[in-house]
Amino acid sequence: MCMVIFAPIFAICAFATCGGYSGRLQVKVDCADRRQSNLSISIDFGYPFRLQQVHFRAPLCEARREEVLFLDQDASAAAQYFVSVGVFAFLYSLLATVVYVFYQDKYLRNNRGPLVDFLVTIIFSIMWLVSSCCWAKGLSDIKSATNPTQVLLLISACRAQENRCTATQEPPWSRLNTSVVFGFVNVVLWGGNIWFVFKETGWYKTGQRYPNRSASGKRNGMRQRLYSESSFEQPEESGAAHSQCREVQRQGSVKQGSGSLGLPQTYLGKPGPGESGAPPASRGPMILVNEM
To answer: Are 27 and 167 in contact (CB under 8 A)?
Structure first.
């Protein structure tokens, strides 16, 4: 089955690309007073993306001190839900593989295995769809919260026109974008697998056992039934006619036998005078004797 082969692989790819992510954003602040400049401000974040807990220090150009700033976003719920669905889908795929390979007879017994598999596949399809959509929205919020323009606006020194602030390094997003793609691939995979699991259930077999006949099939069945009835009636009629013919022949033979009970006549050679060459009919059996 396609789920046995591809589902564990894509589930691993989905939660691994999301759960093991860590990114870094670097900015620099050039104050009008060069002594207060900080050329390397690193902002590290990662899974589960509780950005409101990520803090960094930025210099205050007006005074010789620093301020502590926090990012503004929390995408932990969407990220953890997405990873949890991936882990559970991976574990269920492994369990289904073991059952398909080693317990095929028990799986098909009483039709319970296919029904449970069918319902679980529907549930995972819905969960993959919801978690992928939520994680796509959460990733969009993370990108917005870690946007260098948005981060520089949090720094007080960067809001002054005499100071210069720039981003020196941006976090890579390819890995998180790939996790979203794998999430929707799992949606298609598990959604398509619903049909193959449904074919193993008794509901599909019941529908195939009693197919709906078309109008042409009904007409053909009616013709066959009429032909069979006529074929059964014809032998009875022919048998009755044949029996009547036999009865008439038997009555005629009885009358003929009763009218000619004489002794058999003997014809020696040629016919006698006054007699025709053909023997008279209805005079009983004839015996022919050849002359030597």
So the answer is: yes
pLDDT at 41 over 70: yes
Residue 259 three-state SS: helix
Residue 37 CB partners (closer than 8 Å, separation 6+)? 28, 29, 30, 31, 59
Domain count, the chain: 1
Pairing of strands 286-289, 265-268: parallel
CA distance 113 to 189: 20
- 133, containing H or E segment: helix 112-145
Whether the CB-CB separation of 14 and 179 falls below 8 Å is answered with yes
Taking the whole predicted model, whether its pTM rises above 0.70 is answered as no
Query: How far is residue 28 CA from its own chain's centroid?
Result: 55
- pLDDT for 61 equals 80
- Please give the radius of gyration of the chain, using alpha carbons only, rounded to the nearest integer: 51
One-letter amino acid at 146 equals T
Residue 217 lies in a domain: no
Q: What is the pLDDT of residues 257-274, one digit of tens each?
A: 444 444 444 444 444 444
- For residue 214, being part of any structural domain is answered with no
Residue 197 resides in a domain? yes
- Is residue 288 in some structural domain? no
Structural domain that includes position 166: 2-209
**Amino acid sitting at position 173:** W
